[in-house]
Amino acid sequence: MTARAQELSVSLSDNISTIQRFLETNKLPSLSIEQDVPFQYQANPDFTRPRDAAVLACKELLSLLTGAFGTLTSQTTAENANTQAICRFKIAESFPDKQESATFDEIADRCGLPEPEVRRIIRASLPSYIFREKSRGTVTHTAASRLLATFPLMRQWIETTGAEIHPAALKVADAIEKWPGSEEPNHTGYNIANNTTDNAFIHMSKQPGRAEKFAAAMTLFSNGPGYAPTHLVDNYPWDRHSSGTIVDVGGSHGEYSIPIAQKFSSIQRVIVQDLPHVIEQAGATAPADLQDRVTFMAHDFFQPQPVKGADVYLLRWILHDWPDTYATRILCGLVPALEKSSKVVIHEYIVPEPGQTPTVQDQTLRIFDTSMRALTNGKEREARDWKKLFAEADDRFKIEEMWTPERSSLGIIVVGWDASAV
């Protein structure tokens, strides 16, 4: 049996050839992103039929290549609206036990929605490869719908994206117009969408469970390809800090520093710092066999760092939450604690220049950048942005290495401290 991906590639090739013959027959230039097909030809069935078939082949092939994770995390706002409904009303979980297929009536009975509503939501999701309707009225799981049914974190991500990120992103242009050039974290699309003067994190924290739900949803990418702790654990020489101390600044529950402590038993102390309400919950998460080496400390990273002379101050996905003005303050907060042997290790995106990375990856990076701008005026930074940020914070910071390990989505930036500089 021919693999589906091969069938799609053949279909794509055949339809592109048909389109090219149409263009040549009508003395039109080849398809190009610089020049569109003239409007009067775009309604011609000899063009639209192969074009639509090619587009559908591209969409399905993209879904196959990126998998269920990529399919669900790259949705448009309209797609997300239907997927939110699937999550909210537990439609993907409402199949009879251990069955891969169910009728609309069976799903409706289990999720509590009227059958016409269930049918409408599911059929709106079919073009996004969430469910399949192989025979009239009978729905079958796809990899994406099965992931929604079995992976609660993905459901949280979908709902949080729809509730927090998309409304804020749609107001970015309004925020730019209202506060031109602002680097304040409360001059954002989120502020306009939520009618608040608080920054996003403070505003969420005032509503029980909202900040926790947002934080939990963001951990989805720790489970996704390219974001797992192993990329940080295996690609920095932690063993050079034997008998030393690592401070995980803004480290939440230690999802990244605890694996470092587990692999490198010679590291004497790992201190996970975060705000008091986070630390209250995080203290019980360290494995019993690490409790003599891993501790939790309440600390606001805008204040001076209280742990002096640590070997490494780790900031993982912290600075992208903040505009340069505030990211600089976070780095300046480290200065009183630094010694000549101290390293600052940043684990974040190092956004490549356009054309230096595959388009799909570049699109993901730009989506993240827009999302951070929408929420807090934060940003994903290119190499030159990182250099500028450290130079503005203190010219004694010296970037020693900056690279993105193979198969990792996030880069590693190693920064030394020139204690002799004045």
Task: Describe the structure using short key phrases.
422 residues; alpha/beta; Arc Repressor Mutant, subunit A; Rossmann fold; 3 domains; seven-stranded mixed beta sheet; three-stranded antiparallel beta sheet; 10 strands; globular
Question: How are the elements arranged and paired?
Answer:
Layout: H1 4-25, H2 45-73, H3 77-88, E1 101-103, H4 104-111, H5 115-125, E2 132-135, E3 138-140, H6 143-150, H7 152-169, H8 172-178, H9 189-194, H10 200-205, H11 210-218, H12 230-235, E4 245-248, H13 257-263, E5 269-274, H14 276-282, E6 294-298, E7 312-316, H15 324-334, E8 343-348, H16 359-376, H17 383-393, E9 397-403, E10 411-417
Parallel strand pairs: 4-5, 4-7, 5-6, 7-8
Antiparallel strand pairs: 1-3, 2-3, 8-10, 9-10
Helix pairs in contact: 1-2, 2-6, 3-5, 3-7, 4-5, 7-11, 7-16, 15-17
GO molecular function, one term: O-methyltransferase activity
Protein name: S-adenosyl-L-methionine-dependent methyltransferase
Pfam families: Methyltransf_2 (PF00891)
What does this structure look like?
The chain is α/β, with parallel strands linked by helices and 422 residues long. It has 3 domains: 4-150, Winged helix-like DNA-binding domain superfamily/Winged helix DNA-binding domain (Arc Repressor Mutant, subunit A), CATH 1.10.10; 153-220, no CATH class; 224-356 and 376-417, Vaccinia Virus protein VP39 (Rossmann fold). Helix content is 46%, strand content 12%. The chain has 17 helices and 10 strands. The chain has helices at residues 4-25, 45-73, 77-88, 104-111, 115-125, 143-150, 152-169, 172-178, 189-194, 200-205, 210-218, 230-235, 257-263, 276-282, 324-334, 359-376, 383-393, and strands at 101-103, 132-135, 138-140, 245-248, 269-274, 294-298, 312-316, 343-348, 397-403, 411-417. The strands form 2 sheets. A 7-stranded mixed beta sheet has the order 6-5-4-7-8-10-9, with helices on both faces. A 3-stranded antiparallel beta sheet has the order 1-3-2. β2 (132-135) and β3 form a beta hairpin. α3 (77-88) crosses α7. It is globular and about 75 Å long. The mean pLDDT is 93.
